[in-house]
Every structure is written in structure tokens, then in C-alpha cells.
Amino acid sequence: MKVSSAFAATLSAIIAACSALPSDSMVSRRSTSDRLVFAHFMVGIVSDRTSASDYDADMQRAKAYGIDAFALNIGTDTFSDQQLGYAYESAANNDMKVFISFDFNWWSTSQATEIGQKIAQYGSLAGQLMYDDKIFVSSFAGDGVDVAALKSAAGGNVFFAPNFHPSYGTDLSDVDGLLNWMGWPSNGNNKAPTAGANVTVEEGDEEYITALDGKPYIAPASPWFSTHFGPEVTYSKNWVFPSDLLFYQRWNDLLTLGPQFIEVVTWNDYGESHYVGPLNSPHTDDGSSRWANDMPHDGWLDLAKPYIAAFHDGATSLSSSYITEDQLIYWYRPQPRLMDCDATDTCMVAANNDTGNYFEGRPNGWESMEDAVFVVALLQSAGTVQVTSGPNTETFDAPAGASAFQVPMGFGPQSFSLSRDGETVLSGTSLKDIIDGCVCGIYNFNAYVGSLPATFSDPLEPPSLNAFSEGLKVSTCSATPSLGLTSTTPPETIPTGTITPGSAITGAATTTSTISTTSTISTTSTFISTTTTTTSSAATSTTTGTCIAGTGPDNYSGLCSFCCNYGYCPGSDGSAGPCTCTAYGDPVPTPPVTGTVGVPLDGEGDSYLGLCSFACNHGYCPSTACQVES
Ligand SMILES: *[C@@H]1O[C@H](CO)[C@@H](O)[C@H](O)[C@H]1NC(C)=O
Ligand SMILES: *[C@@H]1O[C@H](CO)[C@@H](O)[C@H](O)[C@H]1NC(C)=O
Ligand SMILES: *[C@@H]1O[C@H](CO)[C@@H](O)[C@H](O)[C@H]1NC(C)=O
């Protein structure tokens, strides 16, 4: 394996630029030739990956959007080394770069030597990001770790840019740079701002840049923050940070600021809703599928793309020359913030609050999110943007370049259009309605992100839905993706009538006709059409064979046989699970969903959760293992 010549050239430029820099140069005066963009990648949720190729799609997609390296966040899981090996190998195969980001929620600051040894273990691999000819390493938290000892154990050749906190008074003399994690306005104490305690992201920039005194700064760029874990897990936490138009504003500010590095927070942290990577990026379910299902964020990466290109060029603002096609990117929460979900929410009872991050009911900070539909227009030349949110329609003059708009949230379909000189350029209706209800019964403060032209279909895959029903109080919501493809023009015939549970909507699988225009996604309707399910499994089969048969020990044999037949075979792919896949091939169409929410019999282990959920929802609900949730 060798470093590609293109990247080797970049590295030489980096080295040359760095050695030429005076040590006291301010961030804004540094050379722009060595500006890099990272994306924070959670390794802790990808234990189900079984080969380097399982990382290829992420590497290729990130690279195509201009991201230079993944910051691989690792805890102390037993699978970390295997996954790091795959990630480094895939990076090398795809001309990407990676580096380790030690998560001190799990690592102890007393482990400087072990951390240094871990750095040495991976630092010479071809996928490693080198900066200033040194092994690039970062962290989440870690104030107090002995940096000199860490570097020494690593062999000395380390560029250490951890997420230390200047406000803690940490000794920064041995660090080479710093990551600021706080990409969201806060109260200075890891919760949403209040009138009396209000720390902006820019104030965080200033604090870090001052403390760094000329050393490189890794500035955060995050699109959103919402987490809603209740007593169903041990890591209960339930709060939001103000997000709304944050990502758009932040990218503009970052071009003005011009830091050495930017870290997108994150690629795949579904649990905190700040993922910009695809839902179908393979991962296990930490319980976040309850708010991530049917909530793709891919449009946010489209939003970032021209800004990343401009940042690499050293531009201080985004000119329309960075926009290669007209695009509307829109997002909104699926339900208003005052919707009362107390009767069915998952966070209505006491739960572990050791972290101080758990709140009952509506997430802490909810009032910092506006009930609005947000739109960013990326335009090659000026145009007219029209937004219709339920009954609210507003029209805006949008200039060439990037601009942002918001419209008060209204119930029902969400439609968007771009016109220019009286001609419609883009037009379409979102796959996700805003409902007068609670999605799956919960306070879901995650965002749905769509775009015109529409992007690809991006469903959560079954292993990423394993914990979907844990804690859910409603039985009308199933662990199955329901979105099809967005239409980029208004549908010629609008489907009418009520979608009843289990009914198939014909014609949606292979055409771009919308399936969502009139289907209200709510707690009382089913989400599913058979055809969309088929579409999603067909879409994934093009890269890897889908499991089409499988077995399991004794009590599991029936469930495994049924589920593996349709591509869901927990245990066959390195994930935790009792099943073994025995044959791969073209995906077998999944039977229509029934809407039946199956859970394990009382007293059975979690290993039945995903199997009962999937099987019961597709018509096989063996009473020896599963029961229907009442
Ligand atoms: C915090 O400050 C920002 C910027 O000045 C302001 O827009 C925001 O409304 C403030 N938040 C609160 C809760 O006062
Ligand atoms: C959890 O702890 C935080 C911080 O002490 C507190 O503000 C919050 O009210 C607690 N949550 C619950 C549900 O008691
Ligand atoms: C399987 O069934 C047997 C007999 O009913 C029972 O004793 C055993 O606990 C079951 N195993 C699992 C893993 O549920």
C-alpha cells in the first residue's frame, strides 16, 4: 500500500507550509494550502461491520464531498481494534485518510502509555492522516492526560490536537492543536442557552483561538443536536441545543474565521441527531432508530459541499462559482414543539441521571427550537423560492449563491419550488409531512432533511433498527423505513384515500412518483408500503449479496429462518445475534408489513427483540417466542 501521489503532493505542501510558518501566527494568517476538513465518526456503533469494504461507501462519499479525513472516535470496546483495522484499510483503498480520536468517556486520563501505544499501532498505516509529517491524533475530552508521556509511548512523532478545554485551566504547552467540540450555542454547561447564560459558538472559537496562541484550531461545524434516551438504556439523556439554521450560519462564519481545520460533528452519531452521513451507513442500534428512522440528513452534506470547497480555497465567503447546480435543501422537525406527547413518550419516568443529562418528558431546551421549516437555496443565479408548509405559503427572492429562509410550520405536506424568469426550475413535495401528533408517540426533535433535486433513497437497514421498539408505548409504529424517493416535479396523479395498514402502494418502487403526498405519517396510520421496502432492499443488493436463507439454534430456528430469508439475519454479519446466514443472493421481496408490533415473550432476552419485531411485522409471529405488544 502506498500513499497516492495526489495526497503525497498535498502532504509535501502541508509540510512546506508548516515549516515556513512563524509559531506565533494567528489562525487567520496561516497558509490556506493546508486547510483540512474532518468528519467525526463513531466506531462504537459499527461493530456489525465485517470487512474493510463495509467502510468503502462512507470513505467514498466523504471524499466526494471534500472531507479530507475521518476522526475515528473509539472507546475501549473489544471490537475497536478490528474496526480500526477495517477503517484504516478502507481509507487506504479509497485514497482517504483517518486518525484516531480517543473518547475519554471511556479512556482514562491515567492511560497515557496505552493511548500512546495504540497510536503507534496504527500510525504507520497508509490510511493514517499525517500532518507536519506527524501522526495526527485527537480526542473527545481528556483534560489531564499526560501529553508528554502519551507522545513518548507513541514514539514521539505525534501531532496531538485533543478536545481539551481551555476553561479548565489545562496545561496546553505540549499539545499541537485543539478541537472545540461545542458546535452549538449553550448555557456554558452543556445545555441550551438561557437568557442569563448564553455562550455562542463564536465565543467558543475566540476562547480556543486565544488559548492556542497560534497553534492550529479544529473548529466544529454541527447541523443539529437532539437526544432522547429514556430508561430503556443505561445512558439516559434527553436534551436539545438550538439548531434551526445553525449549519448554514456556521459555515458562513467558518469561511470568515478561516481556521486551520474544521471537524463536522458528526458523520454518524444518530443518537444525538447530528449525523450528516447516510442512514444506510451500516451500524448497530443504540436505541436512536426511534428518532432516526425515516429522518435522512443527506441534504446537509450537500449544503456543506460548496462551503468545504470554498474553505479549501481560502475563500472568506461563498460565491456562486462554488455552486455546481441549483439546489434547495430543506429541513424541519416532524411535529411542533408544544405537541403534548406525555401520554406515550418514552422519557416520562425516572431514569439514570448520573450524568445530569436526563430530563423527563419534552427534551430540555425544547423552547430553543423554532416551529419552522428551514430552507437553504444554493443557486447559480438568482431565483424565486416558494415554500408551502401545510396552509402557509411564502415566496422569497433568493440571490445567486447561498441564502436561507424559514416559514412557520404548518400541518400536512411540505412543498418547495424554485422558479426563474417565470419558469419552474425545481419543484417537489417532501416525503415527510408535519403531523398534528407525536411520531411513534414520542417527543421527536430530530430533523427531516430533504432536497431538490431529490437525493437517493436512504433507509435504515434492519440491524440499525434492532432496538426500535424498546420502550415505545405505541403499537402503531413499526421498525421499518417507509420513505420512497422524492419526486422532483409535482406528481401527475395524486394518490387519494386512506392508506390502511399492510396495503401496498403500487407503482412507487421503480418510478419517481411520490408516495407521500397525501399519506399522513402519524401515530394512527401505518408508515409502510411494501413496495418501498422492496426498493430499499433492492438498492442495497447492488453492492453486497443479501442474505436469503439462514438458521439458528433451537428456539431461534424458526425466527432466523424467516428473517434471514428476507435479508435480516442478526448474527450473520458480525453483529450480535443468534442467526447464521446460509445463502446469499438477490434479495427476496419482503412480505407486506402487517403493522403488528412483536416483542419477545416476558423473560426472554434482548436477542429476540429485532427478530420478533421484524417477523411479526411481516406476518410471522410465533407465539413460542414472540408476543404482540399491547
Ligand atoms: C443567546 O444569544 C444569541 C446571540 O446574541 C441570541 O440570538 C439568542 O436569542 C440568545 N438566547 C437566549 C436564550 O437568550
Ligand atoms: C438530572 O440532573 C440534572 C442536573 O443535576 C437536573 O437539572 C435534572 O433535573 C435531573 N433530571 C431529573 C429527571 O431529575
Ligand atoms: C429455549 O427453550 C427452552 C425450553 O423451553 C428454554 O429452557 C430456554 O431457556 C430457551 N432458550 C432461550 C435462549 O430462550
From TrEMBL:
Identify the InterPro entries for this entry.
Glyco_hydro_71
Its domain of life reads Eukaryota
The residue range of the signal peptide is: 1-20
Q: Which CDD domains match?
A: GH71
Identify the Pfam families for this entry: Glyco_hydro_71
Spans through the membrane: none
Give any GO molecular function from the UniProt entry. Answer: glucan endo-1,3-alpha-glucosidase activity
Query: Which UniProt keywords are listed?
Result: Signal
Record's PROSITE patterns? PROKAR_LIPOPROTEIN (PS51257)
Quote the protein name from its UniProt record: Mutanase
Query: Could you tell me which species this protein originates from?
Result: Talaromyces atroroseus
Q: What is the lineage of its organism?
A: Eukaryota, Fungi, Dikarya, Ascomycota, Pezizomycotina
